[in-house]
Amino acid sequence: MSFEHLNGGQQLAIKYYTVAIGLFVAQILFGLLSGMQYLIPNFMLGLLDFNVTRTVHINAMIIWLLYGFIGSVYWLLEEESQTKIVGLKLGNIAFWVFTIAVAIVVVVFLVVQSGPGDDATRWFINEGREYIEAPRWADIGIVICILVFFYNVAATFSKGQWSGIAGVLTLDLVALAGLYLAGMFYTTNISMDQYWWWWVIHLWVEATWEVLVGCLMAWGLMKTLGVSRKIVTTWLYIEVALMFGSGILGLGHHYFWIGTPEYWLTIGGFFSALEPIPLVAMVVHAVYDSGVKHSKANNHPAFAWLIAHAFGNFFGAGVWGFMHTLPQINLYTHGTQWSASHGHLAFFGAYATIIIAMMYIAAQYARGQSVFDGNLPDGGWKWKWSLGLLNLGVVGMTVALLISGYEQSFIERAVGGSTWYGYFAAQTHPWFVEGMWWRMVFGFVTAAGIVLLVWDLLTIGKSRKAKETLETSAQTA
Amino acid sequence: MLEPVELKDFFIVFFSGAMVIMAGALYALLFAWSRLQSKPWMMTLAYLSYIVLFISVMALGSAAHLTGFWWWLVITMLIGYLLAPHGIWKLCEATHIDEVPNKVQPTLPPS
Hints:
A: mainly alpha, about 0% strand, B: about 70% helix
């Protein structure tokens, strides 16, 4: 279909969204393979080992979310700045460089599955740091692409007009690119290495990504509900202050057991306990807004995914995070399936949901529709079912992993004292095994959800007469 | 500095940890809804939720041996959760004070 009516930034955003969805599908496929290898350890042994499937599963997630964020920012850039994007050609080149680099990295992960841990491996094969395994050459490429992205954003806002969202977004991108550098140097001291590695993982996810999401949420609420700019901007500032106030030193909850000084137990515990405060603020604000505005959303799927985001963020990051964040508890849960349970719900709830919402906003505009409401030709069954299946699948996996994680914390850590005996006793315990089976079942539910999601994004609003709907809407507005 | 949780308290620790957040959110939700709808009886439910939160924090503190410095964490959590909805509500009112009803902005392509 033609995207000629879209502006330059939006056309670039469509490219980013396309790759994001492809990587989302890859994430789920490799997640299914990893889950299967828990149940049948010999499954694909020697062909695609667990360490490889898990690496691709997690890295695909990080990269597709990054693609989703970048795409979303390009989508809103020209509209927010009220001017044409600066350096679009460079942005397009960066997109292709980034995409080719990602493809090469994945192929290398799949082809070269083992080898020596030397400098050549670090530079060209795998850096070995969990979640950010990309080799050094790709790291440098990622930073360059993010800097080009930053240039596009900062130069466009500078040329056009600045807004609260624009200012927060631009400063956040400085932190996004800068923090990645902390994971790019090598040290032989594992404690030091882990210390800096967490800067990338935690500060990206619980600071810069949360702020980016805050910007997207603010813009999304203006688009779907017509909330005034002044209100969303004020709340963006409040939430950024609360998130940074608690999230930055909340980093300490990753420093409990890596050989850092003991004061991190106190700092990590205290600030982690504060981290749910922004979420409580969001609850009060959401109730206030829904009560006083009675607004109708013009894009039902996007709005439904924004609500899924609010709940997912609260439960995934808030409830599941706080349950095991104090060091007295984390002593037992650290690195068990409990963490995986939290990770699944938090990443999906806080990030995947809002990117999907932005994709639906983009789909509405790209197809030239003034509304995506209850009058969709097919009744909107595809988006409703994909929403239901994806959420049910992820929540199901979360609960299954929680049961396995609870058993692991108890049998392996508390009773077994983290010994090999304790490890194997936990891995063969019926609660653990059954939890893993249920995780697999809900993994397939999630996979069914993504199939419907892709189908829906490719077809939603296509059969309506786009321009006519828009013109009618414009005349009545 | 850290006294590990006893085996018999495992479930209490995880459950009370979850209840801290759940009861905290319920308190905030009912508080905001009561103010919005001007229904004082709902405020009673909100403070009942806070009492559940209080009990959960105490249970967590006791099972996780939150003594010494950690006791201050317990106190801070209790005060923070009690006051946060009040403060956020005031911010809500302040940010919406001169708001005019806003229509949904149609997403139209540039002409």
